[in-house]
Amino acid sequence: xxxxxxxxxxxxxxxxxxxxxxxxxxxxxxxxxxxxxxxxxxxxxxxxxxxxxxxxxxxxxxxxxxxxxxxxxxxxxxxxxxxxxxxxxxxxxxxxxxxxxxxxxxxxxxxxxxxxxxxxxxxxxxxxxxxxxxxxxxxxxxxxxxxxxxxxxxxxxxxxxxxxxxxxxxxxxxxxxxxxxxxxxxxxxxxxxxxxxxxxxxxxxxxxxxxxxxxxxxxxxxxxxxxxxxxxxxxxxxxxxxxxxxxxxxxxxxxxxxxxxxxxxxxxxxxxxxxxxxxxxxxxxxxxxxxxxxxxxxxxxxxxxxxxxxxxxxxxxxxxxxxxxxxxxxxxxxxxxxxxxxxxxxxxxxxxxxxxxxxxxxxxxxxxxxxxxxxxxxxxxxxxxxxxxxxxxxxxxxxxxxxxxxx
Length: 407
Known about the structure:
It is a single chain. Helix 6 crosses helix 8 (152-169), helix 10 runs antiparallel to helix 11 (229-242) and helix 17 (358-370) packs antiparallel against helix 18 (374-387). It is built from 19 helices and two strands. The mean pLDDT is 87. Among the domains are: 8-108; 317-407, Serine Threonine Protein Phosphatase 5, Tetratricopeptide repeat. It has a two-stranded antiparallel sheet with strand order 1-2. 70% of the residues lie in helices and 1% in strands.
């Protein structure tokens, strides 16, 4: 008799649980076995067992607790089959003890240790960010590749090399001491920021609340280093930006910042962010995340965004982060201050570097239309639509393009 196909309802429960708790379970496993691939294999084994066991007896009251216990057991099984050295035997002992804990959800949250391990100087910066996005946030290889404008096979190879290098180098799974923070903090903050951006881009239809995950991780960092102004600036940036999430889409259509209903903004989160930013800047050690936080603060000012100040802040940010994306945002700010020809000239210079970056084409479409270049604007909207993965963004872009056709 052939096995029945898994119940779609159970698949949905498992998927939802893994989206919410995959990072925590993986971190707990890696902390004990010291091997990224072994931890991922054990968690995958646990997920397969879940569909079988839940199909027989129904899903447990706490699926995440069930998964972490069974993932520990699967890791034990794999270690028993292959343990060859003292490190693996020590991991087997630790796992056996922790697997017996009556309340698995009380096991220490090791996600911050995992982030710092992923951001170890032994890895190149791009690999640090990519590996943490994969393990902590559970982004797929394809999603990470899109974030970096890379191909999926290239990113898959990068992730494999990073995990192998950490294992072979015997990198300690721990939060570094203060003397090691400067070399790793910017990578850690980049990870948190990219996790937030992944959730922000996905919008409200994304099952994983990656924005909330990023805010949580930024708060953990502030607890570890309460006097670091860049960490405070990063958390301020996330809080102020996320405060607008309820107003970013109405009826399944993205709403531009200038058109958002401010009554839907989370004023408490904005105030928290502004206080953090004020405290960070008072330390007089400026950095890129403080500048980004200041830009976010200018965007939510009473009376509308302060575009001249935002343009000046992007000038400062570009000196620290001379990237085409920063230049794109600077061009938008310049256009909004009335310097449309200068903004379009700057956008023209960025075309080769950002040809596969959807926000570039969306911005170019908007400002070409304002300049009366309707045909070129149509072409830019078409390219933006080709690159858009969000339904809400696609609807917004189609409406803007149709309005040009009708005008």
